[in-house]
Structure formats: structure tokens, C-alpha cells
Amino acid sequence: MDRRQVLRAGVVGAGAAAFSGALWERAFAAAAQPGVGPYGELLPAGADGLALPAGFTGRVVARSGRTVPGTTYTWHAAPDGGACFADGPGWIYVSNSEIPVAGGASAIRFGSDGGVRSAYRILSGTSVNCAGGATPWHTWLSCEEIPHGRVLETDPWGVRPARERTGMGRFKHEAAACDPDRRVVYLTEDEEDGCFYRFVPGAWGDLDTGRLQVLCAPVGTTSGTVTWRDVPDPGGRPVPTRRQVGAALRFDGGEGCWYDHGTCYFTTKGDNRVWAYDAAASTVALAYDDSLVSGTPPLTGVDNITGSPRNADLYVAEDGGNMELNLITADGVVAPFLRLTGQDASEITGPAFNPAGDRLYFSSQRGVSGAKSGSGGITYEVTGPFRGP
């Protein structure tokens, strides 16, 4: 048996046992498999290289190094992680910049009609800002993907200064997801032997103090019960955080992170997996693994992840692959939702829905040029008949 056969035999059965109760009903009895998505096949790409299902349309809202249309603000290079925030009848899309030294983050403010009202910088003086996460109290956690990287809590309106949240650890941060039920923040780490963390603040809504914990389980665990242990030194010096607790479970390149109704989904790029942590039961299982797919895996190079505010659908972006944003439904079907053509040297980043769930934003980090500087970055908006519950 090859690796795919071994994993399919061993993990699918164990995963089915791990997914129980609400998680079983809402997510997966086994790792997701290819199928026809709820929106059908993709139509041929238009002039902008964007292929979408019937009924959906896309537009470019910003390009790196160019003025955001309708404003005087120049959009940043290498757009990465993003999120949307309600702004009266409109909304704000926040986007990180994954470049060294001058990274930071910017924002575009939209009116209720979807028109651009303004664009501006919300974070400066940081480096390689990759992903992050929105908080329930309407701030953006921007994460540095560098050794001893920081988490910066920023204001999407650009009024209040950003604050470094040292208690959330100094490591190669990737993404963050808030769990308002248990009042913790989950964090991923982009290392080949990285860990999955949670930050337990001293007071919910205030990330100034608290405890950093790491998920623990036997080596090689892909499903079953897990525990949490405190990280002795969140500052990570001289011993990196991921090496301070011997029982910590290792993950191959942590990427996106998304919490929804008791489950925290997170991705690992080294093995093309989407994990599901059942916070109530304190168990993990595989929601997707390309080694468990029958036939050709539709989703590779897993990266950023987000969910629809209208239902339980997950959207997983590819870093490489064939430049798709894939949809994973609650009944375990994985299928492409959109594809970018002519941008093979780029990656899809920052998927996020507006509060109403009828507009989806994302970026092509390097665009058509594929320049490593991210100077060719493109940020898109997709509108259409996104389904309800």
C-alpha cells in the first residue's frame, strides 16, 4: 500500500469516530472528496483571467503600486491575509502586506452600494505581515511571518494606533481565529515542525495579558483527543516556543485559521491538509487531505481559509496548485469556486466575505507578473448568488 492507501484506511475510519454530535452534523464524516459544487462548473475566464460559476461576476478593486480607484491612496505590494468589518451600512476590507521591513496593512472602505469610499494605511513599521484574524470587538490581528514575529492588534478605521500583543508569542506567525465561546484566540505557525496554539487572555476583549498554550497529542496524531499545555516562555528566547513543550503535536507548515460554531479549522501546506479542532470535545480530525482523495486532488497548496457568514461552507485558497479558491461544503464535497488563469507564479490570499455574505474579496499576491516583490498584486471582489443556510 502507498501512503495514500495507508492514510485512507487508517484515517478515514478514525476520523469518522472523532466527528460526532454537532461536528458530525455540520462537517464531515470523513475527509472531504471531490464532487460537483453547489454552484456548478466554472465558466471560461474573462479578460481579467478570473473564471467563475454562472451568475457570478468579478471586478478588480485595487492593484499594487497603483492608486485605489476613487481615492488618492496607493495600494500596497504583496497583498496577503484579509478580513471584512461592518462600517454602518457599508464595510471595510483589511489586507496585509507580505513584504520585508515595510509590510504593515491597508484598508478599503466601501459604501452600502459597494462603491469605494476611501483607502488608507492602518499599520506601518512591521515586516512580512502574512495572515491574521478579526476579533469580535472589531480589530484586526496582523501577524508577522518571521522568526520571533509579533501579533499587532490594529484598528480597521485607522484611528487608534496599533498595539503589539507580546503575550501571544514571538514565533513565525501565520493566522489567528477568535473563539468567543471559550474566549480564546487560536494561532498557527508556519514552520515545518510548527505548532497550533491558543491564547487565553486575562479578560476577553483585552489581549494585553494572558497565557499562551500549545496543543498536545501523541506523535503522528490525525484524529482523537488532544490537550493544551502552557508555553513557559512566550517570548521564545533562547528556546523557540514550538520546542518548549515536548508533548506538543507538530504540524507541517501552519497556514489559515477559521473558527465557526464550535470548530476551528486550520490548514497545513506541507501535507495539504485542512484540520478541524472540535473545541467542545477537545478533539482533532481531518476535514481534507489530498492523500485521502479518490482520483486527482482538486485542492493542493492549501493556504488561507475563510467561511461564509450565510452557511457552513469553507473557502480554501491555493498557494500554487492551479490557482483556485476551493469550496468545501458541510456534507464533505470539495470543488473549485473560482480560478485565476495566467497567474501561475502567484498565490491566492486574503479571502473574506463582507458582513452580508454577498461579496467575496481576495487577492492574487503577485498577479500576472509573478514578481517576488509583490509589485503585481491584484485585489478582487466577487458578487453573485451566494447561497443561504
UniProtKB/TrEMBL annotation:
Transmembrane segments annotated in the record for this chain: none
Lineage, broadest ranks: Bacteria, Bacillati, Actinomycetota, Actinomycetes, Micromonosporales
Domain of life: Bacteria
Organism annotation: Catellatospora coxensis
Alphabetical list of Pfam families matching this protein: PhoX (PF05787)
Protein name stated in the entry: WD40 repeat protein
InterPro entries referenced in this protein's UniProt entry, alphabetically: PhoX, TAT_signal
PROSITE patterns on file: TAT
